TrEMBL record:
PANTHER family: DTDP-4-AMINO-4,6-DIDEOXYGALACTOSE TRANSAMINASE (PTHR30244:SF34), TRANSAMINASE (PTHR30244). It comes from Ignisphaera aggregans (strain DSM 17230 / JCM 13409 / AQ1.S1). Its EC number is 2.6.1.50. Belongs to the DegT/DnrJ/EryC1 family. GO terms for molecular function: glutamine-scyllo-inositol transaminase activity; pyridoxal phosphate binding. It holds the Pfam family DegT_DnrJ_EryC1. Keywords: Aminotransferase, Pyridoxal phosphate, Transferase. GO terms for biological process: polysaccharide biosynthetic process. This is Glutamine--scyllo-inositol transaminase.
Length: 382
């Protein structure tokens, strides 16, 4: 195989005439900053998720920070966080003065491990953040059972899981609050953007206060907030994206099925070298990423190099468990989570986005099996 530039990308936003028309409409209206368009996006998004209230903000990281603050989490509070996720899940607690404590993850779904949650939960725990990683719901029912009637806030980080369901109910509707990200790679996007959702009116009112400098009436400020607002331009794109979310997720699921069929035949030929993504029977996965697991780091790193240099963009999500990030090492965090550490050596994300054609999927298949073949040939002669 020859070296050439990437021609199948890992992510591609789906921007159609509807988004373009919506942006033009807002630009012509003259109301560019937060306004009625943002309110409409909030209302429609809350309806879609099945919650009563929502607040749009500038990004998912801010959404998490403000959700924590609005739930009363702050200085010195212990927040349980899965060890395997994007850094923002753990830095948001730090940003509000809280102390993240890492919980190991389930080897099948990459999501919070219930047994380790039972071990880590304590009298000091003030909140648990579950992440619906890669678009697969966390076992939220079991998490709720572990929390029981303790006074512990449950926050869902659904940054990667718009439209995912657990037991037929949308993620984002289970916790005391949930957050979403609309970053450019997400299942729906506003370029940058975020949303906090909750059934608790006071939580969303607090988020709305904090996102706008704690302003209670014009130039009267009751508490320390900031400018964390979403623009009307972003909201208009978001509304158009929301209308196509179910269609885009269906395409992601179809693509995932095609990839799984291809990998099953590669496994039949080469002896189960690749572990497929898992979908629990109670879950509806929305495949933000199609995350496979390889038997070890050598094969994973080989495939990473081989596929990227043969035109198929793949990524490692994530190369380090959070407790091993330089940031957390410098804060004195020690080894905590063997499964998470192991997954970081074996995970590889393949393209699954809705803009892939059948041809693209055939190319991914061809490149993947060629890379596996090269690897097996290479290791058998060395
Ligand atoms: C799991 C998770 N949480 C939080 C975030 C933060 O969202 P944003 O990038 O919009 O700040 C992301 C974004 O990548 C994420 O994947």
């Amino acid at each position: 195989m020859s070296n050439r530039s990437i021609n199948i990308k890992l992510f591609e936003p789906v921007i159609e005439q509807e988004e373009i028309d919506s942006v033009i409409r807002v630009l012509k209206s003259g109301w560019l900053a937060q306004g009625p368009e943002v309110e409409m996006f909030e209302k429609e998004f809350a309806e879609y998720i099945g919650v009563r209230y929502s607040a749009a903000v500038s990004n998912g990281t801010v959404a998490l920070m403000l959700a924590l603050k609005a739930l009363g989490i702050g200085q010195g509070d212990e927040v349980l966080v899965p060890d395997y996720t994007f850094i923002a899940t753990a830095t948001a607690p730090l940003m509000v003065g809280a102390i993240p404590k890492f919980v190991d993850v389930d080897v099948n779904t990459f999501n919070i491990d219930i047994e380790d949650l039972k071990n880590k939960i304590s009298d000091r725990t003030k909140a648990v953040i579950v992440v619906h990683l890669f678009g697969h719901p966390a076992n939220i029912k079991a998490v709720k059972e572990v929390i029981g009637d303790k006074n512990i806030m449950l926050i869902e980080d659904a940054a990667q899981a718009h439209g995912a369901e657990a037991w037929g109910q949308k993620v984002g509707s289970f916790g005391d609050a949930a957050i979403f990200s609309f970053y450019a790679t997400k299942n729906i996007t506003t370029g940058e953007g975020g949303m906090v959702v909750s059934d608790k009116k006071e939580v969303i009112e607090k988020v709305k206060l904090l996102r706008n400098h704690g302003q209670i009436s014009r130039y009267i400020h009751a508490e320390l907030g900031g400018n964390y607002r979403m623009t009307s331009i972003q909201a208009a794109i978001g509304r158009a994206q929301l209308r196509k979310l179910d269609r885009l997720n269906e395409i992601r699921r179809d693509n995932a099925q095609l990839l799984s069929a291809i990998i099953t035949s590669i496994n039949a030929q080469y002896g189960n070298v690749i572990e497929l993504p898992v979908e629990e029977p109670w879950a509806r996965h929305v495949y933000h990423l199609y995350a496979i697991k390889l038997k070890d780091k050598t094969l994973r790193d080989y495939l990473y190099e081989c596929m990227n240099s043969n035109g198929v963009e793949v990524a490692i999500n994530y190369p380090l468990p959070l407790h091993s990030q330089p940031l957390f090492k410098s804060l004195g965090y020690k080894d905590c989570c063997p499964t998470s550490s192991n997954l970081a050596l074996r995970e590889l994300s393949l393209p699954v986005h809705p803009k892939l054609s059948r041809n693209d999927i055939n190319t991914i298949s061809m490149v993947l099996s060629k890379c596996i073949d090269n690897y097996i040939h290479f290791t058998s002669i060395t």
